[in-house]
Amino acid sequence: MTAPTLFTMYREDEKRFNMNMRITRQKNIRTIELFAGVGGFRIGLERISSSDEGYDVVWSNQWEPSTKIQHASDVYCSRFGYINHANEDISKVKISDIPEHDLLVGGFPCQDYSVASTLKNSHGIIGKKGVLWWEIYRILEEKKDKAPKYLMLENVDRLLKSPASQRGRDFAIILSSLNSLGYAVEWRVINASEYGMPQRRRRVFIMAYKKGTKLYKNLQSNTSKDILTKDGLFAKAFPIKKVENNHIISLKISDNLVDITNSFNKKTPKQNTFLDAGYMIDSIYYTSKVEVNYNDKYSVLGDFLLDEKEIPSEFYIDDEELKKWKYQKGSKSIERINKITGHKYTYSEGSMGFPDSVNKPSRTIITGEGGASASRFKHIVHINGKYRRLVPMELERLNMFPDNHTVGVTDSKRAFLMGNALVVGIVEKLGKKLLEEI
Fold this sequence. Notes:
Elements: H1 3-24, E1 27-34, H2 40-47, E2 53-61, H3 71-80, E3 85-86, E4 103-107, E5 115-118, E6 125-127, H4 133-143, E7 150-156, H5 169-180, E8 183-191, E9 202-210, H6 214-221, H7 224-231, H8 233-237, E10 249-252, H9 257-263, E11 277-281, E12 284-288, H10 319-329, E13 332-337, E14 344-349, E15 380-383, E16 386-389, H11 392-398, H12 411-419, H13 424-437
Parallel strand pairs: 1-2, 1-4, 2-3, 4-7
Antiparallel strand pairs: 5-6, 7-9, 8-9, 8-11, 10-12, 11-12, 13-14, 15-16
């Protein structure tokens, strides 16, 4: 029997188990997963769900507009089934087709969130076409009083600094639009490896709480210092060292999204207005730099490698190919010519650690991790005198996914899917703390 068949049998058993969990669970948080990829949020939330309480994913959406074959959606459905999963452009989904839910989760792309104009004779807005943040906004706005009480979102950390010409403008638009819909917001930039996870991956995580919820009231009733240091959800899930009042920046955000688009941070465009931790309530945001306070076990790359007997021969690098890898990883200066102006310039880059240390957390997995061609950014390990690339299962482990989660597509595509994924352990910690708080 082939591995995919065994894998399918295993998934069917797990689906039956999850279905039984949904039937017996008394306190469930109805959840929808947007831009679902291969289900990183869902895995993290279901891992910390029990027979008494937990998260039920009642609807999911995954659509990749640039590819004919929907690899991520296919993997998602092979893991979790086709029921209540929409493999279509989210902008074409009717809000009435999205079931009521308590929690909305998703890793939305970092794009230009600027607003084109306000809609005439209404309080609505027109965001740039194809920008997926506005699809989240559309769901929240059209659901009205049935909009979810909580949001859990993820993005690259540069969201807090984009665009370069108006640092923080895009995040200000997000905060202001959520404020207009009645939400308070917490955020934190988290490097997974700093909290004992196996990959150095910095991402900003965003939690939002609807007015009237316990977590909203918590932000209202505590000082900014206490929320950032000990009383906020992020402070409880991901401890930091004490933040002093004189290190906290506090400013008001305009409720005019067009004004933010045109004017935010114009006077000091290179100054960071949003730092690695913060929260916003009633149009006022508070933000500060933070220092991690973690005293538990740390993970390293070597902990997650397979036995060399399990590594296919094509992942090893011969002596001739090794020269190409060493060149890519080494320092270099290359003379280039601007195709438009004809101007000559020197492109330089420093050397990278080669091979990757098995005694440290891995570097960030990127979408181009797959394939045998030499690359500056792919991982290479040196085991028993041999150099090799990482296999898909090892990449899954570094994102804290189940082994063989992406079986069913090519090795290169599996690597691509992991480059687009998140570190599941962060979702677990946030989901566990959210469950405890509500």
